Amino acid sequence: MGIAQVQSRAQIGLAAPPVRVEVHLGTGLPGFSIVGLPAPVVRESKERVRAALAQCGFDWPAGRITVNLAPADLPKEGGRFDLAIAVGILVASGQLQPKPDLEHSELYGELALDGELKPVPGLLLAALHGNRAGHRLVVPAGNAAEARLAGCGSLLWAGTLADLCRQLSGGSSAATGPAEPPFPAAPSDPLPDLADVRGQHQAVRALVIAAVGGHSILLSGPPGAGKSMLAQRLPGLLPSLSHGEALEVAAIDAIAQRRPGVQGWGRRPFRAPHHTASAHAIVGGGRDARPGEVSLAHRGVLFLDELPEFDRRVLEALREPLETGQVSVARASLRAEYPAEFQFVAAMNPCPCGYHGDPSRRCRCSEPEVRRYRARLSGPLLDRIDIQLSVRRVGAPALFDRDRDPATEWTTAHASGLIAAARQRQLERQGCLNVRADATGLLPTLEPAALGLLAQATESLQLSARASHRVLRVARSIADLGGGKRVSAVQLGEALALRGQA
């Protein structure tokens, strides 16, 4: 009769609570039971563990084996506990005499029937939490790069259970990772350049202003006006992610069961779901409350093309993350909180046929059809969109002009430098981007004429308090782009115009 304890972690949203794998070998009829709220895939681990131990030359203990995954009320998912259970059985039965550092180690790995250690999906989150706790991580070889990415100070990996047991007992040299892995190289492939946009000077400036303060933007115009082209160039205008932000984005990817890679490391996400996507796909959900598109776009850009074509429930579900920067996904027995600090970019046609107000094409829609189409976007949703701009079709002379003056054109390299400097001014002034700034704290930066214009516009245009505050934040971003410490009446007027209120 023996008992052993091994450490591991579960996964619930962005939390990775510790799990203590307790193994007890008792007398009586042979049996193997796993308790502690295990999912079916966890209960099936007993068959994988039994076969793997036999293939690696270990004896299956006689008597009754009880495995407790504590705490008992915490749901356990996946095959990540296979390795901890197998090592616990070997320690409890005396077949493995590990070194004392096992009690400060966390074990993860799925066992194949032949004893191979298979990588665990989404291990990055557990690695981050384990590293903060100061524990050594013991993982399959396929997860070693992922664990190194988390900056684990102590790491041990192996390809098979037999090899790992030799390393745990000191029978062979341990395969360990560096305490501080090198930061992955920046992507070499270029993003679309702003210089490719022809003739849309106002829209390009609006995009740059949106990038300065992290503002949401809605582009409305006929097909082929360049709305999608503009949206695709926004990620290239934003500063690269810091190492901590990149880890945060990679952890969300890992939760979504996508292996976090380093190919696009440091580059902000760009998510563009189709308009047929469900509310669960956009916000998050499913049986295990996985993150949706709003969280996968965290620290990046969420682009919704053909905005009125999305389901009404999807559009209304965007209101909470746009306001708070986070989303709560609740299920019957599970609740998860995910960050959703994305920059929202949307595009739409002005009517069902797309040519309402276009001088070059005649609109086929009746006025009631146009009103119904635009009514698909509710007032509360539009109230949360900072910049609402009408984009017109570009004529042939501007589209094919070979003699453009480079001094009058925006390029991504030039604009990104101005944006980075403007963002730095915001961080030094208030510690956050203007989109999340306290509007009352920005009021003292308005010149008297600008303050009077804002009060007059709020009254005459019947702007809500939210809309007025958002106009103020956009005006502050315009001033930051120009390097000014105060917001002028001209800059406030431009912010009103960008919201379609001038």
Verbal overview:
This protein has 502 residues and is an alpha/beta fold. The protein contains 22 helices and 18 strands. A five-stranded parallel β-sheet has the order 11-14-17-10-18. Helix 2 crosses helix 3 (82-92) and helix 18 packs across helix 21 (465-482). It is elongated. Residues 177-182 have low confidence and may be disordered.
Per-chain topology:
Blueprint: E1 2-9, E2 18-26, E3 31-35, H1 40-43, H2 45-55, E4 64-70, H3 82-92, E5 105-107, E6 110-111, E7 117-118, H4 123-132, E8 136-140, H5 144-149, E9 155-158, H6 161-168, H7 201-213, E10 217-220, H8 227-232, H9 234-237, H10 243-255, E11 270-271, H11 279-283, E12 284-285, E13 290-291, H12 293-296, E14 301-304, H13 312-317, H14 319-324, E15 326-331, E16 334-339, E17 343-348, H15 367-374, H16 379-383, E18 387-390, H17 396-399, H18 412-430, H19 439-442, H20 448-460, H21 465-482, H22 489-498
Parallel strand pairs: 3-4, 5-8, 8-9, 10-17, 10-18, 11-14, 14-17
Antiparallel strand pairs: 1-2, 2-4, 6-7, 12-13, 15-16
